[in-house]
């Protein structure tokens, strides 16, 4: 098994080695001009020195950030030993054999994974407890309703026409936050509404948007089992209760009859 650090360092080295030649081949003149305009630092005798230092600084920042992330998991690596390992490797006098390095890094990777799993389970338990407390408080607000699944919602504007069905495509603007107010998604700031089939999203949305009609606005408080559950997704921790402010802009009913799979291709051919 390749270690976490070896894979990362290999990827970094390959990117540095391959990216420049490809850029030059694609558009040599602009790349050469950019190189000529690169800032010169008096602390370095030539470009090679400055480039070497920049590479070292980049790797150093990466390792510093990695150490901080590991500290969050309860793993405190000795920075002095890390630097000593780099220096010894360059000097060709490593205190560990290649086999010992590989075994040590494999063991370390296992520790990191174990600590990350333990932290995730701890956070998931805490998030569930905090989410339940938040939902209980929200449920007491005027106008809030709760469904059998545990979804909480408050209709701020009903809208007009018919409510969307599972097979309909809806167009919405929305803002999504965690219970502490941290925003993880916002179509308003992107400047582009989201369009999707109602039964193709998390259950909390599928159920919640049926409570309003075109032009309606609703606040949803979605428990983990109707959102991303105990695993979570990037930006949304495990067992998170989610809060959404949603505006239903449009409803596009599904076709009354589904055409055979080959029909669209046949139709396109006829049009040509």
Molecular structure report:
This protein has eight helices and seven strands. It has helices at 4-26, 28-36, 47-72, 79-91, 98-139, 187-190, 203-208, 263-271, and strands at 144-146, 152-157, 169-178, 183-186, 194-197, 217-222, 242-252. The chain has 272 residues and is of the alpha+beta class. Helix content is 49%, strand content 16%. Mean pLDDT is 83; it is low at 1-28 and 256-272. It has two domains: 4-117, Orthogonal Bundle (Helix Hairpins); 143-252, Chitinase A, domain 3. Strands 1, 2, 3, 4, 5, 6 and 7 form a seven-stranded antiparallel sheet that branches.
In summary, what is this structure?
This protein is of the alpha+beta class and 272 residues long.
Strand-helix topology:
Blueprint: H1 4-26, H2 28-36, H3 47-72, H4 79-91, H5 98-139, E1 144-146, E2 152-157, E3 169-178, E4 183-186, H6 187-190, E5 194-197, H7 203-208, E6 217-222, E7 242-252, H8 263-271
Antiparallel strand pairs: 1-2, 2-6, 3-4, 3-5, 3-7, 6-7
Helix pairs in contact: 1-2
Features:
7 strands, PPIase_FKBP_dom, 49% helix, PPIase_dom_sf, 272 residues, Helix Hairpins, EC 5.2.1.8, alpha+beta, 8 helices, 7-stranded antiparallel β-sheet, 2 domains, Peptidyl-prolyl cis-trans isomerase, disordered N terminus, signal, Chitinase A, domain 3
* CATH structural architecture of the largest domain: Orthogonal Bundle
Helix/strand/pairing class, anyone?
alpha+beta
Instruction: Report the uncertain regions.
Output: 1-28, 256-272
Report the sheet-strand fraction.
15-25%
Number of strands: 7
Q: Biggest sheet: strands, sense, closure?
A: 7 strands, antiparallel
Broad shape: elongated
- N-to-C terminal Cα separation, in Å? 54 Å
- Measured on Cα atoms, how large is the radius of gyration? 27 Å
Please give the domain count.
2
Elements, N to C (H/E): HHHHHEEEEHEHEEH
- Give the fraction of residues assigned to helices: 40-55%
Number of helical elements: 8
Instruction: Determine the CATH topology of the largest domain.
Output: Helix Hairpins
For the record, what CATH class of the largest domain applies? Answer: Mainly Alpha
Corresponding CATH superfamily of the largest domain: Peptidyl-prolyl cis-trans isomerase, FKBP-type, N-terminal domain
